[in-house]
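Reopening this one. Same input as before:
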Amino acid sequence: MPLSAKSSRCRTWVFMLAGFLIILGVRFALIERFSSTVPLADDWLFMDTLENWANGQRDWAWLFERHNGTHLTLFSRLLPAMSVEMNGLWDPRLDSFLHALVYGSLALVIAQFFARIVPERAMLMRGLVLFFFAVPFAGVRTTWAFLSCFDFASLFAFLAFSVQAWRGEKKWALPVACVLALAASFSLGSGCMTGLAMAGVPAMELLASRRIDRRGLLWLGAGAIIFLAFYLTMGKPTISAPPPFVLSQSISAALKAFAWPIFISPLAVSALVPFALLLWHYFRRDDESRRDPRMKALLLAWAWLLLQGAAIGFMRGENGNHGIPSNRYNDLLMP
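Same output, byte for byte:
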């Protein structure tokens, strides 16, 4: 490797490490200032289990129980379990510190993801992503470690997308991406959307070129199976959706969910414009151009955003106790 290339890679890693430490520093400061040893919201549901865990009675099946009837939150439940193992008791503040490490890791993955999409402005993309991850925007996300389920799902999803976009031709890529998609599905109910997004890229290739190769068919089938396996076995939510729960309301809520900061405006539909332009550009390109890893990565990222918006719109509606206040919206769709 030429000396200049080594120097450039060294600068990149130093820059990323500095960004990671800044993110951790900001979150550690917020946790130190605002966190509490008192459990928050859904944390109270775990008190008896964690008390037994602290007494040596480990209930491993609890890690795989569905939260609110729908969500598998394996990794978010591992945090308090690890807290008990490390500390001898459950301290929500320790969970928050562990969550900060997950959050920082997600920032690095997404920063590198978009840097590869725009390689001529790679450092700028890394800087913008790390900056937005470092800026605090919703305190409940920082001090409530159970919300790490969103970060775990996004972390595994974007790792899977990276493998599919840039290493999809390798023999090992499909099984690795499937493992990551499964991990995302075990992190959050809507994590199964990772499989749907993975299946969407070869489906788009099929629509655009009227043909699909064997490798594309394998990606399509594997992604669809992962999505359906988790979606069709998802239980009914134990929380009540706000009536009337109809399709038009779900669509409206989904638009509001991913149209921040204008999600309370009729202009929310404008959030679809960039995606529509991307699709228009995709179908106008030739087959070779459509196989560009950067195009695949953009499609996967947009699919993840839209599918998560649709998920919250479908499950939560737009009115009532389980609507979309800004903190819940941010917790799902923003860093």
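So the earlier flakiness isn't reproducible anymore. For the record, The beta strands are 66-67, 71-72.
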